[in-house]
Model the fold of this input.
Amino acid sequence: MKLFADSATSFIAERPDADARQLAWSAFEVAGLPTTSDEVWRYAPLKDFVLDNFEVVGEPTRRTDSSFAQQLCDRAGLVVRVVDGFCVSTGHAVEGVNVDIVESSMSLAGDSLARRYESDTFAILNGALAPATTVITVAPDTNVAEPIVVLNVSNATSSFSRTQIVLGRGASATIVEYFEGGADALVVPLSEYQVDDNASLQLITYQRLDQSAWHVARTTGFLARDARLRQAVVGIGAHYNRSRNDAEMRGAGSENELRTTFLGSGDQVHDFRTHQMHTGARSRSTLLSKGAVADRSRSVYTGLIEIEKGAKRTDARQTNHNLLLSPAAHADSVPNLDIRENDVMCAHASSVGPLDELQRWYLESRGVSREDAERLMIQGFFYEMLANLPPQLAELVERDVTSVLAAVNVVTP
Amino acid sequence: MTSTLTIEGLRVEVAGKEVLQGFDLEMHTGEVHVIMGPNGSGKSTLAHALAGHPGYKVLDGSVQIDGVELLTMSPTDRARHGLLLAMQQPMEVPGVRPIDLLVAAGVDPTNLRARMSEEAERVELRPEVLDRFVNVDLSGGERKRAEMVQFALLRPTFAVLDEIDSGLDVDALGAVARRLSLATSEWACGLLAITHFKRLLQELTPTAIHVLSGGRVVATGGPELSEVLERDGYEPFRATHS
Done:
């Protein structure tokens, strides 16, 4: 029995836009699953990946929120609930904010999802199998004071959620995309963010899925003139955590700050990919990727900065630091630059290594035990990444990360 | 109760070179001892070796508080036995907050943030600086003052102050020196201050001044010794050692 294909085709047949979905599904069947001989998949444990372990469901299953999810919602001005990819609640009305469930296969970039993501098998699958697109629109010049939380819970063995966030001119908002659940599941979220002229979006993507999940996520930001996108991506859970975070600085003076961080334990693989595309003049991107790998876990960071001809006085910076918490853990860092304009400022730096011995000594010399010093420093690795978040969220996520770190085994050389 | 710090025959190697060549000193709580000496005389080596810096290798000697040997202890245990080094160049520890450091070091967490602010004000440090990660984005002078906040809350029996005066303007130096001076009565802290400059001594009356040259103490005297150094420099002392 072909559980996945059979459940997918019957799911598609029942949807109102079955034709568009069928096109995407056919594209998936033609492309097939990636293999580790594809460069962009070479670090993924694909030999363990069996598509027929997953079933596409026609409706959301029951859900119970974790206590963390409840606390997160308590701090939100608006909660959008998504279960198994289905938006089950668009929350209550907040002035200037609209949440719509849209049956559409279009990208915010203007073309179809199938075309937009034609080289990305899992994004194509999302195009075929996401129940609908949850579209959050913030009206021009609206300043949304309280954070908006998109609570993604996965109970079924597959979940394809799709979120599009549009900030009108001069608007500002803080939005959290949170993921939990996902035991033995395939979780494939696809998110797009459109930030119009002078608008400012702060995004936090917090992934706390079960350690058995396959998480293949993709986000893309589209930035207009003087738009600002600050994004923090924190990956804790999943057996395989793949996170691709792209930004297109289309407008002059647009600015993207991306901070990605992960904690690897057991035999997890964290696979982070970023692509900052500069087409607008004077656009800026600052990318900081930091993560820690313990036990036998592995990580890879691959970042591409692309600067188009004409994107004069662009400033693009990329930094990647990896902390090795065990001799059996491994981290790879692969920065790439593709620059077609001369008048730019571009820099990248990367490092892989154990905890800094002198920083640890500094803490010890105050009377902090070695174990506590290491714990503080590893926590610090994450706290630094959360430093720009609104305090009420930073404090909550810090506490959660700290509880996870308490269980991580640190072996220093 | 008076405690005694005894350093005997301390020999320390750094980067393959024996920098400290038999250092001796005895001091008691409540006292202020000052170590002066030219560049390269071994002052900072002494400070780092006492605190167990991993880059400094102790070849021989003994460092004891009330007869308990510190050199065989980890840096953590040395601190817990009452020895604190206030560093010349306090290190940045990104992601770690001063309050978390202090709690992990065993400081009573009750009203701690308020107590930190109080101590910050005593050394003319803006209290909000203590909400940043340890020493990150702090100026040289702010770092020195942040070290003093840690010092005041950790309340060591003996504190080694490695050029605590450098990077501070005259006003800040006065405030830091007054805080240190108060500590010698408040909890009878013993201070071992390493300095290039006389100006620290204007607020902090030394029990004794020791001149370090070529890795050894070549002269010991009272406050008047700093006048001699001011007038004649280190040259006369340099000549006395082999």
The first helix of chain A runs from residue 3 to 13. The longest strand of chain A covers residues 314-324.
